[in-house]
Amino acid sequence: MLTTKHAFSGFSVDDIEAARVFYGETLGFDVKLNGMGILEITLPGGAAAIAYPKDDHVPATFTILNFAVDDIDVAVDELTAAGVTMERYEGMPHDEKGVLRGKAANRGPDIVWFLDPSGNILSALSD
């Protein structure tokens, strides 16, 4: 077993200032830019993530952060009001809001995906 004090996630971005605005202002998380130019993000529930600038950044092709929400429709409305667009993936039965309704089909959570300014994939889901 690995003995640790805590854990955090990290991912790259191509514009640290755009990431600061998105995670801090659009999503409303506590963020701070540390002395090394890395964005420290405090996630809901107290978990942490860092976003670091990378000149040759390539957006993640997988979901880097998942946000559990009580009501997917409220979450979509909040995101949309903040200017965030829901992603739609070919072959997936998204509704008019962009939600994949898994609960109604007894096939998992209701979920939406959206992108940060660097093209990294995020999700909001309710089970």
UniProtKB/TrEMBL annotation:
Residues 3-127 form the VOC domain. It holds the Pfam family Glyoxalase. PROSITE patterns: VOC. It comes from the Bacteria. SUPFAM superfamilies: Glyoxalase/Bleomycin resistance protein/Dihydroxybiphenyl dioxygenase (SSF54593). This is VOC domain-containing protein. It comes from Herbiconiux ginsengi.
